[in-house]
User: Fold this.
Amino acid sequence: MQLSKVQIEAFRREGLLVIPRVFSPPELAVLEAALPQITESAQAKIQTDATTGTVRMSHGAHLYSEAFRRLCLHPRLVQPSRQLVEAEIHLYQSRLEMKAGLGKASARGWPWHQDFSTWNLADGMPEPKAVIVFLFLDDVTVSNGPLLVVPGSHRHGMIGDKAAAVGPDGEYRQLIIAPEDLRDLAGRDGIAALTGSAGTVAFLHCNLVHGSTENISPMRRALFGAVFNAVDNRPTHPRPEYWAASQIVPIRPLADDCLLRFQR
Ligand SMILES: O=C(O)CCC(=O)C(=O)O
Assistant:
């Protein structure tokens, strides 16, 4: 899948690009069948939701799940990402982002932040030369906790006081966007909810300010994210492999039908 000049220009301006119907229902079914490998696996690095006890986030499924490894090497993710990063890329990170919709307890949201600040401060990624690609595993609507973004906010670079990213124990702490900064950014550019049917793919610049609210609907909202970084943008002190790749291997995409050909 090649992006057009118009799509690339939109990404440069907005810091995001949302494309519907990139993956088909049979391809999504392959991934759905592989989900328990993440949500029920002892290998998975899982963060659970404090309220519901359900899976909230899990990093590194490409390291042990063949279906999600294939997704991360899929040409429909890799080729556009190369165009957007304008370089050879490697797979830096993958993550499943679940928001259960149990109808009896809500799954929490995420505070406003930029992903690059974590990768820069915690892993030593030098430049914001990475793109985050989310595949919607479910229909995402305004009611099941969509990702919220401030379009164009990537153009302001890394926002916030780096000193606030160090906890009392000296450990890295996520840099949250201050309310006054958010007021300025959103006052200028507004806030957009990334909605679409299952199979939609969203490309986000790594400095795009984003967050989300809790899911109080009965519908699950699952996204799978792959992060592609320029190979010449090597992190100086990456965290463990499930968070940040230490081997910088330029990606060779698989065949377009790699998910459909996957035999469990
Ligand atoms: O899954 C969400 O709603 C937001 C997750 C997020 O902000 C992130 O992964 O950086």
Observations:
- The radius of gyration is 17 Å.
- Residues 97, 110, 115, 145, 147, 210-212, 223 surround 2-oxoglutaric acid (CB under 6 Å).
- The first strand starts at residue 16 and ends at 19.
